[in-house]
Amino acid sequence: MKNEKCKICRRLGMKLFLKGERCLSQKCPIVRRSYPPGIRGKRRGKRRLVPLSEYGKELGEKQKLREWYNLKERQFKKYVKEVMEKRGRVEDIGELLIEKLERRLDNVIFRLGLASSRIQARQLVSHSHFLVNGRVINIPSYQLKKGDKIRLCPSSLKKTIFRNLILTLKKHKPPSWLKLDAEKIEGEIIGKPSIAEAAPPAEISAIFEFYSR
Q: Looking at residues 30-55, what average pLDDT do you find?
């Protein structure tokens, strides 16, 4: 359903910007209905007096980050577990988790401004619209590294969805670890993602606590 993503934001009580430009407009459902979805959602939200348990809080933080990066539970859990196994061997596993999520190809496409949302970025990558170092990569989870170059396939330039892309990119400012050439519709990994710049909408430590149970 087209409004399913909007219901996720309303259920979690915050904007996760899952639908691109619509989330920035007054059409965003959470602006008009800032209470949980459902016929009695508004009343339920006002009457909730019992605070959430620690488990409930941790679950909520996990859901926020998972939805923000547009991942299925199994995939997200795999990232978290892989990072948790390195506890004690790296300085900050929270930083490492965000770095892995930010280096996903679909996320980089979004961060470069080549797609209006991570959902759209995932679809465009799956449809083979992008080249990584001159080779078509259609795996959204593909992990990019410093020096990798991403560009739009020449054959995709004629597609309606990319018609005004250059104009859009000229107004877009990517994070500091990415370099964007709007004219060439090309991006490059020039640094390392950080929690501070990624600004995730969740408490990362709570997510590790959730999966430690």
A: 63
